[in-house]
Amino acid sequence: RNMSSAGPEGRKKMRECEGLIDSLVYYIQGAIADHEPNDKATENCVCILHNLSYQLELELPEIYAQSIYMQRRNISSNDKTPGCFGTRSRKVKEKQQDTPLPEEKSNPKGVESLWHSTLIRIYLSLIAKSTRNYTQEASLGALQNLTAGTGPMPFAVARTVVQKASGLPSIQAMLHVSHPAVKKTAVSLLRNLSRNSSLQNDIAREVLPDLVSILPECVPGCDIACETTASICYILFNLTQSSSHNARLLLSAHGLPKVIAISMND
Question: N or C end of the chain: smaller count of CB under 10 Å?
Fold first, then answer.
């Protein structure tokens, strides 16, 4: 667990270690099957997988990058817009959202397991069944890592979480836990999911009222709560910017007074 947070080279070596990722997944599957999602070893395994999924899109071995990602195209500088992830092309972003992953392997091995739907469902199961805050946070964090990029893999993972694995209720429950880091990570995951236009109506329908309910009346003092508040506002912006229906949901959930109050702060 400590070594998995040692940086890019450490992550690379551990991802390449034959049988390591498979063993971690195997152990967690056994723990869930035995109804023991709260043991310390499961927490350690999930935290390792969480760390190994960090910046996965950028650090994928060339063999996977070639099969998953489109060839880079020369893009006119006129089409580029600055954003949170640097200068990106709006057209490429839209295209990537519609680019499916290659067909999933029924028996993934090694690094392939890190974005496979089997592990995504394991994370969602742990979020729902575990009561250990570190296990919940690591499971949410792994999904946050996997949905953080702008290529086809993050958007495919997002679709799996929301539509194929019906994961929103499990994430929704984490918005109301008392542990601030768990809540922050759940909101950060939803922020990533809300960037996918095909999922915005599902997210608005299922979690928008919950997001409004935990939105404070003003900018909070502590760093974690402030970051969580900013992420919620970003989600609400994503959900409402191109949907009048979702904007009406925000109004009916009495979210506008809170947004106005926050915007009045210096």
Answer: C
